[in-house]
Amino acid sequence: MLLKEIKNIYHLELDPLFPKEEVDSFFYLVIDHYLGLERFILAMQPNLVVSKENEDPLFFALSQLKQERPIQHILGKAHFCELEFRVDENVLIPRPETEELVYWIINEVQKGDPREEVKILDIGTGSGCIAISLAKNLPNAKAYALDISKKALQIAGENAMDNGVDIVFLEADILSLEGFKDKFDVIVSNPPYVRELEKLEMKNNVVEHEPGLALFVSDGDPLIFYKKITRFALSHLKKGGVLFFEINQYLGEEMKQLLEAENFSEIELRKDMFGNDRMLKGQLDPK
Ligand code: GLN
User: Can you supply a Gene Ontology BP term from the record (predicted)?
Assistant: First the structure.
C-alpha cells in the first residue's frame, strides 16, 4: 500500500476522536518508530510504497489508538527535554508543562558556581524524567530520586541507564519520609494533584491508562502531599536551598500561602505554556 494511503486511513479513523494535527503527529511518530522514516518523507517521496509486512505494525498501532491507548504506551517511549524515556502504565507519561519546570530549575542552578556540587532530590519521580533531565543538563548535579512504586523505580532506573546518568533511587512514601540524613540544595516534586472533582474533565486515555497513584488526590485535603514535602524541605534543604513544585492550576494561591506560612522567601508562581498556574518556587532563608 502507498504510505499516503495509510495516512489517509489514519485520518479517516482517528479524526472523529482527536484533533487533526494530533492525528498527524501520531502517524509520523508511528512511521518514525516502526519504519525509521522522517516526518517529511511524504513531501520528498509522495509515492512511497510500504511492504505488506511493514504495514502490520502501522495498522496495529492504529487499532490501539482507536481504543484511546496513549501513543507513548503503544511505542513504549516518550520524549521529554530532548531525551527519550521508557514509559508504561506504571508511570505518568511526561508532560510538556513539566519540561518547563525542569528548564526553570536548570536556569536557577546555572546561576550558581558550576564547580560546586548541587544536591537535588526529586520526590515522586515516576519515570525519572525530572531527575534524569536535571542530571543530564547539570554536570555539577548529584541527583536523588524517590518513589513509592517499585515498578516505577524499575523503569526510572532503566531510563537513567539508557540516558547515561547516575542517580540514587530510593523507595519511599511521601507521607512518611523519614531517616534522611542528607540535606539538599534543591528539592523538586510533581506529586499527585488532580482532585476527584477534576477527574471528570480528564481525557479517557489519561484516566484509563495512566496510574491513579501518580495523579489523584482526595478532595478532602488536596494539598496533603505538598504539606508533607514542604515540612520535609524545611528540615532537609540546606540554608538558601530551593523548593520547586509542579502544582494544580486551580490551587496556585493556596500553594503560595502554604510556602509563605512556612517562611519561604523569593516565592514565585509561574504559568505554563497554556496560561495555567503550574509551578512554584520558594527559597529557604540563606542565613
Ligand atoms: N498534569 C497532569 C495531568 O493533568 C497531572 C500530574 C500530577 O497529578 N502530578 O494529567
Answer: methylation
CA 253 to chain centre: 23
Nearest-CA residue for atom 9 of ligand 1 = 192
pLDDT tens for residues 135-177? 999 999 999 999 999 999 999 999 999 999 999 999 999 888 8
**Phi and psi for 286 in degrees, rounded to 5?**
-70, -15
Which phi-psi region, left, alpha or beta, contains residue 50 (left: φ > 0; alpha: ψ -120 to 50)? beta
End-to-end CA distance of the chain: 69
| pLDDT tier, 109 (very low <50, low <70, confident <90, very high otherwise) | very high
Q: DSSP letter at 127?
A: T
Range list of β-strands (E), 127-213: 141-147, 167-171, 184-189, 194-195
Residue 232's nearest CA partner among 278, 179, 196 is 179
Over residues 166-219, the pLDDT tens digits come to 999 999 998 888 778 889 999 999 999 999 889 988 988 888 899 999 999 988
What are the residues facing 78 on neighbouring strands? 85
CA 54 to ligand 1 center in whole angstroms: 35
Q: At what angle do helices 20-35 and 52-66 cross, to 10 degrees?
A: 140
Separation of alpha carbons 85 and 79, rounded Å: 6
252-275 mean pLDDT? 97
Euclidean distance between CA atoms 64 and 184, whole angstroms: 43
Ligand 1 midpoint to CA 113 (Å): 33
